[in-house]
Amino acid sequence: MRYTATLFALLLAALASTSDVSATNAARGTVLRLATWNLEWLIAPAEFRELSASCLPRNASPGNRERYIPCNVADELQRSEADFRALRKVVDELDADVIALQEVDGPAAARKVFTKHEFCFTKRPGVQNNGFAIRKGIPFRCAADVESLSLGGRVRSGAQLVLYPNDRRETHLLSVHLKAGCPRRPLDDSRRDCETLAKQVPLLEAWIDEQAAAGHRFAILGDFNHDFSIRGPARTDEGTLRNFWAEIDDGEPAGARLINVSSGERFVNCSAGQNYGSYIDHVVLGETLAAQRVPGSFVRTTFNEGDALKRKLSDHCPVGIEVALPR
User: What's the CATH number of domain 31-41+78-325, 3.60.10.10, 3.40.50.740, 1.10.10.10, 3.90.1300.10?
Assistant: First the structure.
């Protein structure tokens, strides 16, 4: 009888614990994992073979061609089915509901990796597009591209996504892939890449201010190609833009204060073969969404070492965070 009573007591305790967890989850509302991942020239196999046949040699001009790949990409990044399987393993481990994507040709390429998701992509004709993978079953609307970020088509535009449109949980997301080449330099550096990035920053800030003024819950996710841990004033004494993070996180208008979810988190390389020192892929939450961040939910999904050595994965790996939207 004592053994039976003990089992009964343990069962009651387990049920009580399960009930407490369920109640906590219910109180938190809809919990979503949001992430971002640059997949390094992800192109469906048939399109990759076609583009490889007319690849662009080093230092050659594409002229009027809108769809092309450099010959070094053609030589090094044709992915096999085993490569796609390895990428799908990363997706399974990440287990994100919404992933902002960069350097993906479009839905045909994305479906090779994301089998449980639907997609929104920018309409840029080039092979490097921004977009989103959204877990099937989550209501969403693909919004208009933020073409201003492309600087007249010279660089990449932004992809907009609205989750749970016309619902209390409505959330506005922007996927970005900003100009490379200025990761840790001030934006007033004379290098052309820094000058280009500096032109994109006020346009990104305009999107942030628009979302905040409209009272939207929002986030920007993507490859910013810049280290936000660099400190300093937003502008020089002469008013020239200098510091990326200080410029966009100015708190104006109300609701525009931002949180970079990797701030304070230990930097981890994607694999042992990499030697980077800081994050340039970021998930940036607006003030309202930041208040709904699930504590301790920051995620950095790294690569299996065997796959990193044998498979063509990416030079980036995902970062993400969980948020609890209201019921």
Answer: 3.60.10.10
pTM equals: 0.91
206: three-class secondary structure by DSSP? helix
**Token pair for residue 52?**
């490889």
Asked if 259 contacts 265 with a C-beta cutoff of 8 angstroms, the reply is: no
Q: How far is CA 227 from CA 170, 267, 278, in A?
A: 29, 11, 7
Query: Domain boundaries in the chain?
Result: 31-41+78-325
What pLDDT, in 10s, does the model give residues 56-90? 999 999 999 999 999 999 999 999 999 999 999 99
Angle (nearest 5°) at CA 208 between 99 and 191: 85
Which residues lie across from 134 on neighbouring strands? 98, 118
**Could you count the other beta carbons within 10 Å of the beta carbon of residue 302?**
16
**Predicted confidence (pLDDT) per residue in 13-52, tens digit:** 443 433 343 334 334 579 999 999 999 999 999 999 999 9
